[in-house]
Design a protein that fits this description.
2 copies of one chain form a homodimer. Chain A has 340 residues and is of the alpha/beta class. Chain A has 2 domains: 151 residues, Isopropylmalate Dehydrogenase (3-Layer(aba) Sandwich); 151 residues, Isopropylmalate Dehydrogenase (3-Layer(aba) Sandwich), CATH 3.40.718. Chain A is built from 13 helices and 11 strands. In chain A, strands 3-2-1-4-11-10-5-6-9-7-8 form an 11-stranded mixed beta sheet, sandwiched between helices. In chain A, helix 4 runs parallel beside helix 5. The longest helix of chain A is centred in the last third of the chain and has 26 residues. The mean pLDDT of chain A is 91. Chains A and B meet through helix 8, helix 9, helix 10 and helix 11 of A and helix 8, helix 9, helix 10 and helix 11 of B.
Chain lengths: 340, 340
């Protein structure tokens, strides 16, 4: 297996992507195509002792983190993201990892790589920590106004990701809404609920954020607007709780002492809630997995992104999704055929 | 000023509503109409020494917390919620407070009390703690699929609530979206953005959850589906962080000691993040404020709910909202008149 790593993407490019790629090559036995400017990458690799299994795919163009996606796509056709996507399309790599501009990675890989059979649109997913383990939520920003059939496709992709990558047997699929009853929610949710109930998936009905965080679902599907709100709200609420906690713990001597004694606990906690520890956000539905890491990813997060893309390829998740969607299509078509 | 308190609503009715009403009457010098079954309420009041300023408005019917709202509205026309709403409509009270079934309070008071001039639909709001203070978010569940003009009405209501009740000068209004640029978001957000930009409100543009929690906006408007997701996600993320923290702090002796020393800090923190401390969720847009308290509200939360309803009436917020909406309507109509 060979994975492309965008060496020009992220707040700490090329240092962190290069270090992450080196860690991945050494620890995971994976081959890496490091995409970016050879003049910068060759010396960086040399500092790491030019490890085996990494080769540079040269391109000088790079898309900035805050650059207009629409412009960048047209004007920078040789960007590191474009080149990584081309490697994936040609089958020269089985996945790609980038800490670059999320919008650019989504748009470029959708156009260049193409989607799986039965998948209309790729979905951006995120793996969140729960009180019981982990859950995958999708879409969190690729499709702002999807149709209900897209949500069903997301549910299929999430199910196979959860079973193959998170190791969950018969993943429970929940539909994010604002009440558990089937009639609750907006029009999209009500339609998707009806379709999911008829599907062969392990659909457990509507779920709310507390169900997600208490670990009652393994896969949570929603439109990209709502999913993005959920993701950003989770991050902001946790950040604010930490902020207020720091304020309170530094107000008294007992609080400060507690803070010092509790350092280990706070550190372990950070490890559990830091979603970057999973490596990044999987962009599902392409031929081959793209993992979009946080812009401020450290080398470990980049390395973990490679691990997820690698496992995804090794487990043949793409093929499983296509088969499942094809089976659902055939079964949905069957009664109609009988009527004729 | 006189405020109706639903004595039959909530997980601890009638004890907590009665205790809250007694606290409010004693501490705030407000008159209370305690709505519920006299046979249960008279002895409960007697245990508190039958304080001045509280009278019982008798009704035997009560709507259960998990009861079907549609059925309850039709079959229990003399419920404590109906009676409290009737007092408000007749002007016998200036606000109402209930810890009962949220859906029932919203539906019944909308039908019985009616909305302010210029307001199409009431909006459920919530006051959240931020890193800098507090912000009001609306709608959080009353309107699942509103139009953009409703969001503008929410913004006006939120602005006057923030300035009169939260004491914010020229409140900054943000539109909840998934990116700061005007073009980001769904169709509703893009339309509302355009209208808000033209309004006399202090509109600061699209905001994300981190802007809200960092205190960059005083009023955040959104549709009720999205707002409910934001609210529930905030609660669930904080609950999960606490759960994981408890786990980590009890794993080692230093963690346990830190937990004991940090008790004061954790307690103060709880006081700051517990949104029930504000009393409840204001249902804005009716003639007179309804405050919907959490089902598990303690007497202090109920008392604080009464305080908010009281201040709302004293500051004449209803009238301010009507004037503002009327002015906006006239100004919007003016150019068209000139053209003719």
């Amino acid at each position: 297996m060979r994975i492309a790593v965008d060496a020009m993407g992220g707040d700490h490019a090329p240092e962190h992507p290069v270090s992450g790629a080196v860690m991945a090559a050494r620890e995971l036995g994976v081959e890496i195509a490091l995409v970016g400017d050879e003049a910068a990458l060759a010396p960086a690799l040399a500092r790491h002792g030019s490890p085996d299994g990494i080769d540079i795919v040269h391109t000088e163009e790079a898309i900035g983190m805050d650059e207009s996606v629409a412009l960048a796509i047209r004007q920078k056709r040789r960007s590191s993201i474009h080149e990584a996507a081309r490697l994936l399309r040609r089958g020269e790599v089985q996945g790609l990892v980038s800490a670059g501009n999320t919008g650019a990675v989504m748009a470029i890989s959708k156009v260049i790589v193409g989607t799986l059979n039965g998948v209309d649109r790729p979905a951006l997913a995120v793996v969140l920590p729960t009180q019981m383990g982990r859950a995958i939520v999708l879409d969190v920003g690729a499709n702002v106004e999807p149709k209900s059939r897209h949500l069903v496709q997301f549910a299929v992709m999430g199910t196979h990701f959860a079973s193959e990558i998170l190791g969950v047997e018969r993943p429970r699929v929940g539909l994010l809404s604002i009440g558990e009853e089937a009639g609750k929610g907006n029009d999209l949710v009500r339609k998707a609920h009806a379709t999911l109930r008829e599907s062969p998936l392990n659909f457990i009905g509507n779920v709310e954020a507390n169900d997600l965080y208490r670990g009652r679902a393994d896969v949570v599907v929603c439109d990209g607007f709502t999913g993005n709100i959920l993701l950003k709200t989770s991050e902001a609420a946790v950040e604010t709780l930490r902020f207020l906690m720091r304020t309170e713990f530094t107000r008294t001597w007992s609080g400060r002492l507690a803070g010092i004694l509790g350092r280990g606990a706070f550190r372990r906690l950070r490890g559990r809630v830091d979603y970057a520890e999973f490596g990044g956000a999987p962009l599902l539905g392409l031929r081959g997995l793209a993992v979009i890491c946080h812009g401020r990813s450290n080398p470990r997060a980049m390395r973990n992104g490679v691990r997820v893309a690698l496992e995804y390829g090794q487990h043949g998740v793409d093929r499983r999704i296509e088969v499942a969607l094809n089976d659902m299509q055939s079964n949905a078509a069957a009664p109609a055929a009988t009527v004729r």
